[in-house]
Amino acid sequence: MILLKNLKKNYGKNNFKAVDIKSLYIKKAQIVSLIGPSGCGKTTTLKIINNLIQADEGFVEINGEKNTESDPVLWRRKIGYVIQKIGLFPHLTILQNISILSYVLKRNKKFIQERSYELMELVGLNPKDYKNRYPLELSGGQQQKIGLARALMENPPLLLMDEAFRSLDPLTSRSMRKEFLKLNQKLKKTIVLVTHDIQEAFEMGDLVVLMQKGRIVQKGTREDFKKNPKNLFVENFLNKKN
Ligand SMILES: Nc1ncnc2c1ncn2[C@@H]1O[C@H](COP(=O)(O)OP(=O)(O)O)[C@@H](O)[C@H]1O
Ligand SMILES: [Mg+2]
């Protein structure tokens, strides 16, 4: 389980808080969609969870361990981070891209080979055909799959995904999302997924968390939002995006 408690982040501009989250509890194997208008603090929240930036106040707890009391590098190894711009290394092959963290951790060759082949098959790319290619020789959807395989290499219990399906055309995006949900029925990862697309948020998330100006305005299921939108902002957000 993951707990965000009293998280506050001010980037140094006046009293403006990029993130101001009182409490968010995420159960094991739950998929949480974090949604809200541009600039509401979604990416900052993910970066705090990942210990890429530090909150001014509050803490993140994963399975009983607090980020404020652990080594940031070790902390990050428990987490797979998938970002919109994919971030594959253009001069490394697909195999090298997927297994880079395991190289850094000096895993043995056998493990690296077996695990990266397994992951390529898992995301539907035949290792023999793809392992020696370079990222630019792959389509956007295929690159996204490699980004996901890389995040899964060291089998982290938690996955953070920041607009991971955004750079794809709508059709590819939809089929990737479907495949991903199917895949996760096997993997059972806990996932925090950032999106600006309300359809995607409802489709993917067991729990949807709507943010505004750094704060959580409302959280719940699709039904909760439809039946009981908390205020006008929520109503407008739901309507505008549909
Ligand atoms: N490195 C930074 N320095 C200063 N302000 C930042 C920085 N990163 C984000 N912000 C500000 O913090 C707020 C939240 O940003 P962000 O978390 O990226 O929002 P979102 O991902 O929801 O679009 C925005 O107002 C943004 O301009
Ligand atoms: Mg963002």
Describe the structure.
By secondary structure, the chain is an alpha/beta fold. The chain has a domain of 130 residues: Rossmann fold, CATH 3.40.50.300. It is built from 10 helices and 10 strands. The strands form 2 sheets. A 6-stranded mixed β-sheet has the order 6-7-8-3-9-10, with helices on both faces. A 4-stranded antiparallel β-sheet has the order 2-1-4-5, covered by helices on one side. Strand 9 and strand 10 form a beta hairpin. Helix 3 runs parallel beside helix 6 and helix 4 crosses helix 6. The chain is globular and about 55 Å long. The mean pLDDT is 91. Magnesium ion binds next to helix 1.
- Give the termini separation: 32 Å
Rounded mean pLDDT is 91
Largest sheet: 6 strands, mixed
Q: Radius of gyration, rounded?
A: 18 Å
Basic shape: globular
Number of E-type strands: 10
CATH fold type of the domain at 1-78 and 191-242: Rossmann fold
- The number of helical segments is 10
> Spans with pLDDT under 50 lasting ≥5 residues?
none
User: Strand order, biggest sheet?
Assistant: 6-7-8-3-9-10
What is the H-and-E element order? EEEHEEHEHHHHEHEHEEHH
Name the CATH class of the domain at 1-78 and 191-242: Alpha Beta
Ligands in the model, by name, code or SMILES, are: adenosine-5'-diphosphate, magnesium ion
CATH architecture call of the domain at 1-78 and 191-242? 3-Layer(aba) Sandwich
CATH level-four homologous superfamily name of the domain at 1-78 and 191-242: P-loop containing nucleotide triphosphate hydrolases
**Structural class assignment:** alpha/beta
